[in-house]
Design brief:
Helix 3 packs across helix 6, helix 8 runs antiparallel to helix 11 and helix 10 packs across helix 11. It contains 11 helices and 2 strands, in the order H-H-H-E-E-H-H-H-H-H-H-H-H. The protein starts with a helix and ends with a helix. A two-stranded antiparallel sheet has the order 1-2. The protein is mostly helical.
């Protein structure tokens, strides 16, 4: 009975933090994405979500997921088995770059609805799912480290700190989904990304890789706009 009550509490609404928290967290997340050294470290989170996106679509499209590998240079690879062409392969290849942006919008929606506990729970479940599929030592280390931070915030931190953290995490997913698209095109110009997701999509569909980069960029920016509206709605209401 107690366990059932605990589960239902995940669907309870929590009082939102002061509106200024959304603004401060947004500025902090943007600085984290733009600053060179912090971005190198924090980008691992984006990579985890990126590879989780590949893995999820591989499973949903009927492919056999073999595993995920995460590397210290913030790169990663998801291996699946199935037809080397067709819609399933296209969806699996496409899913990586939009995954952080879409997750950011989902988290922003939960915050707008006051579902902070549900957000933390979903984040924990996603990390557990990735951890099960990781197939290299560094990947396990990266996922466990992120999970440990999440656990400390969820179990030990006071509600005020939790509020700041979930807003910061959500903003970071939204902003952090945009920069990798620019980095992708920069690497392509240097000829250093011949097997990138965009180039694989070009080979699978016959559409130019640059067009796929543009599609990925537009999607990331659109998600950023939607997420910003959701996160700043309380601020706008306060100043109206």
């Amino acid at each position: 009975m107690t366990d059932a009550i605990g589960i239902w509490r995940l669907f309870d609404t929590q009082a939102p933090p002061p509106p200024a928290v959304a603004l401060v967290a947004g500025v902090a997340a943007l600085a984290l994405v733009l600053a060179r050294r912090p971005w190198r470290l924090a980008r691992h989170v984006i990579t985890i979500v990126h590879e989780a996106g590949h893995a999820l679509l591989a499973v949903l499209s009927g492919r056999r997921l073999r595993g995920i590998r995460l590397h210290s240079d913030t790169s990663g690879v998801t291996v699946s088995r199935g037809k080397p062409t067709g819609p399933g392969m296209v969806l699996t290849t496409f899913a990586g770059y939009p995954a952080p942006a879409l997750l950011g919008v989902a988290f922003a929606s939960l915050l707008a609805a006051g579902r902070m506990a549900a957000l933390l729970t979903i984040a924990a479940v996603l990390l557990l799912g990735v951890l099960v599929m990781v197939r290299n030592a560094y990947g396990v280390f990266a996922v466990v480290t992120v999970a440990a931070v999440l656990a400390v915030v969820a179990l030990v931190a006071p509600p005020g700190v939790q509020g700041v953290f979930v807003y910061l995490m959500t903003w970071f997913l939204l902003f952090g989904a945009v920069r990798p698209v620019f980095e992708l095109q920069a690497k392509r110009r240097r000829g250093a990304a011949r097997d990138s997701d965009a180039d694989q999509l070009a080979r699978l569909t016959g559409m130019p890789a640059l067009l796929w980069v543009l599609i990925l960029g537009v999607l990331a920016v659109c998600c950023l706009v939607v997420g910003t509206v959701l996160l700043l709605e309380p601020v706008a209401a306060l100043t109206a």
